[in-house]
Amino acid sequence: MNDLVNKVVFLALLMLSGCRGDLPRSEAPRPRTVSFSPAITDILFEMGFGDHVVGVTTYCRPPGRLDIPVVGSDLSVTTEPILAVAPDVLITQSNPKRFESLRKLGPDIRVEYIRIETLEDIADAMARIATLLGAPEKGPIARGAFLSGLDKVRRRVAGRPRPRVVFVMGHHDPSTAGRATFINELIEVAGGVNASAEKYEGWKKIGIESLLKLAPDVIVCESETSVADEARRYWVELVAASPHKVRVHVVTDRRWTIPTGRMADPFAPMLAGFIHPETVREAAK
Amino acid sequence: MTRAPMTLPHAVTGRKLLLWVVGLSLAVVGLGLLCSLVGQHRLTVGIWRIRLYRGAAAAVVGAALAVAGLALQALLRNPLAEPYILGISSGSGVGVLCGLALAAHLDLPSWATTPTLAMVGGLATSVVVYAISHRRGRMDPYVLLLAGVMINVFNGALILVILQFTQPTEMIHFIGWGMGKVPEWIWSAPILLIVGAAIVLGAWGILLARGAAFNALGLGDEVASSTGVSVHSLRIWTFVLVSLMTAMAVSLAGPIGFLGLIVPHVCRMLIGPDHRLLVIVSGFGGAVFLMTADTLCRLIDIWTGMGELPVGVITAMTGGPFFIYLLRTRRGGGAL
Amino acid sequence: MNQSPGHVLTASKVKFAYRPGQNVLDGVDLAAAAGRLVCVLGANGSGKTTLLGCLLGRLRPSGGRIELDGRAIDSYLPRSRARLMAYVPQQPAVAFAFTAAEIVLTGRLSHIGILGLTSSRDREIGRAAMEMTGTLDFADRMLDELSGGEAQCVMIARALAQQPSVLLLDEPTSHLDIANQLKIYRMMRRLADDWAMAVVCVSHDINLASRFADELVLMRRGRVVAGGAVAQVIDREILAETYGVQIDLIEAPGGSGPIVQAR
Which residue of A has its CA nearest to B115? Predict the structure, then answer.
């Protein structure tokens, strides 16, 4: 009998430990913001709204802030963790319909959907986020800086012949950026032509032979830092099988493939430097 | 029911064996050269080299999986056995996924790349399965099967857990890996191919020498033991070699399915159940099968332009129906 | 039983327990000599099959000693042991689609080289074994096509292909009709007489055993009730103690020895 009582008490305590009750809320200025995508998180921090962020997803990397709770992932929207951080607004890149249950349980939370698929979208996103975060004056400034940054690069490479560029992620099983990606636009801005766009839409896996058939002049590969050297060696050796000279560049910053303000600075100028190395000295002036 | 007329009489001589080996080797080499003519790009020396390496990798992986499947079917006296029942493919998956998940957070050293992690994960799993099923100096086939199934389920759950910490982009990589693909990048890492070939040839040779023992094993453990087979030792050796070959195959090409199950059966239907020949023919059969499937993937890409399918798709979609066709025309189901 | 140097397989005071304290065999003696047929009999659960397992070297006795050709049984590797001793199971079964001839040739395993290739000599020996057991006619048939008796003969031929000195059989006729039972026992007799083999047969049929064997070993609950020449062992009291029932001994026509019948 005692044994049974012990077991029941133990189980009850175990279950009760799962009840968090009211935790002290983190001190964050209103509006308390949950970001539901890495791009949005990065933009928030770039624009100086980092303090407002009370929740991020598993894939977000808020700079210097390991304490921000993870409230979900792009794959699963779990309502409780979001409610637990008591946000005022939730910003997402994915379909707002996924947040139906959140709306029911937390009707005061504003769910804001922002599309970020093109470079133009990034500019608009910055303006919109500034408005949502209660500092609308920052919007046009950030937007303007972004767009003028892109223009600066366009001017730098204007009039020059456009080399064929292929942007890939990974080297053993690479995916390439085709049409309808912001990388596609970035290549255009940086004075190149996206060779992958001729055959592919969106991000698609590409085989060795298909890639060589695209006859690129420049290959830019985003790779993990740990295998960057290996990737470089791989591409250099591969393009040796190509009839004409191909330049290989390996980048390790994962933000190359996250659409944020960094597209305008530093990535667009860097890409221009890869595609048109002759303009690098001029740009430094 | 007498056996189909294509089977060999029970006189397996050294000369016959040698003829089979030489003939099949030539066939494989010839096929490899033929397949190297197929591809998107026009043929240059550099491209040809890339394709030859890829064909060699397909041969090595195909042979490994087929021989591993055959050895397991013989060992467990079970026609449904195939290399992944030991949990190796799911273990490799855990290894690979760990690497993908961690790579985003930590700076993993370059040796901790997908092939290495797949190998480590696969072998670690087989060690666990071995430990579970090896008790008091014996390895029980039933326990082995069940342990493999349970470990597969456990690894599957583990994979779901790790997926929570994985980036979407990495997740896509993992899914792509999970379908199985002959590594087209193998030309840049010939050492992997050499090690793989060494493992396959070594294990293949050892299993070939066990062919007669496998035959005797079909009569039951007791009869086999009294005929001179060291049943326990055979079980352990076979387990180790199968694990090694399978882990190597999965580490190079991901878990390509169906091959380890179908190829031994097809060979058995064609040349009969004598393992002395089956070990050899299965290996070559696996090589031929995967080389052909891989080339078919390239051909489909050329015809439809929709990109290369993972070869695991082809092995499943062609292997399955073909096997059913064989079953129906030869009535060779049931006994192995 | 007297155990002399002429015995090729001997068991002395063999004890075996699956779990400590539960002796399945409790001090069993047995000796098999070339040219003699020994039958082991007893009630179900008397330990006959366990004894066979120990004799084959499959089970490790917890006490006593088993010797094959003068050496301890566990000092043999399976391969060298197989050249001296062969086994015929109760039920023939094969997982692979082998023909009868292929099954017989698997018996040559302990004699062939590393690649497992059979020479013409091996095939000759297999042929002789199949001829002896009368199975040559269905050399190319599958085991499951054959009748019980034919299949059992194939298994015996397989054992003979090992060219053993000792042949151990585990209730070889338990599922056969009387004609086939007779055939098998006659075959065992011939093997002992013409092939100078030491044959040990665990039997369930006291009458056939007493008719054909040279020696009987009667067991009950892991112990030998009696062991020795047939005439000494076929005794009402001994049999009653072995089987736990009252026994009648009936004189058979033809003078081949008494028929045992449980009352």
Answer: A172
pTM over 0.90: no
Whether A209 and A102 map to the same domain: the answer is no
Q: Which domain holds residue C98?
A: 91-163
Q: How confident is the model at residue B33 (pLDDT cuts 50, 70, 90)?
A: very high
Residues of B in contact with A257 (CB under 8 A): 169
Our CA-based measurement puts residue B230 at a distance from the nearest CA of chain C, in whole angstroms, of 6
Report the CATH number at residue B226.
1.10.3470.10
pLDDT above 60 (res B332): no
Asked whether residue A236 is domain-assigned, the answer is yes
Is C263 among the domain residues?
Answer: no
Cβ pair B274:C77 closer than 8 A: no
Provide the 10 A C-beta neighbour count for residue A190.
27
B171 in a structural domain:
yes
User: Mean pLDDT across the stretch C31-54?
Assistant: 91
pLDDT in tens, A227-238: 889 899 999 999
User: What is the SS3 string spanning chain B?
Assistant: CCCCCCCCCCCCCHHHHHHHHHHHHHHHHHHHHHHCCCCCCCCCHHHHHHHHHHHHHHHHHHHHHHHHHHHHHHHHCCCCCCHHHHCHHHHHHHHHHHHHHHHHHCCCCCCCCHHHHHHHHHHHHHHHHHHHHEECCEECHHHHHHHHHHHHHHHHHHHHHHHCCCCHHHHHHHHHHHHCCCCCCHHHCHHHHHHHHHHHHHHHHHHHHCHHHHHHHCCCHHHHHHHCCCHHHHHHHHHHHHHHHHHHHHHHHCCCCCHHHHHHHHHHHHHCCCHHHHHHHHHHHHHHHHHHHHHHHHHHHHHHCCCCCCHHHHHHHHHHHHHHHHHHHHCCCCCC
Q: In this structure, are C137 and C183 located in the same domain?
A: no
pLDDT for residue A193:
96
Minimum-distance CB partner of A230 among B104, B110, B181: B110
Q: Are residues A110 and A179 in the same domain?
A: no
